[in-house]
Amino acid sequence: MPLVLMLHPRDHYDMADLRDELAAELGVLSTHVVRHVQVLPHISRAHVYRIGDGGAHLHIWFFARPEGQTQLYGSWMPVWDDLLPEYPADVAEADAAIVADALVASIGGRRSYASESPHD
Description:
By secondary structure, the chain is of the alpha+beta class.
């Protein structure tokens, strides 16, 4: 896939454990991520998954379906990601930066980088 993103809370929660205000924030944040992913010119759809059987820490995954590849339609998107040739890392990193910057512009906060602790 051209872009795979993961959203998770800083503190240890599972979806059923979220207070209503955190659940509302998750919904708004997820919607903004989808909007910003789908604006990318080579993306037709952002698929959203909650995957994590056996783990109690909430992880929400966003898989970007490439434009013109309708055969990747549906719930098999994570499987296709494992089967397709690797997408160029520099393009995926640039797309992730575009989405992160758009997210900060649309709802606030700041970007964190791989070298930073998620709790910084």
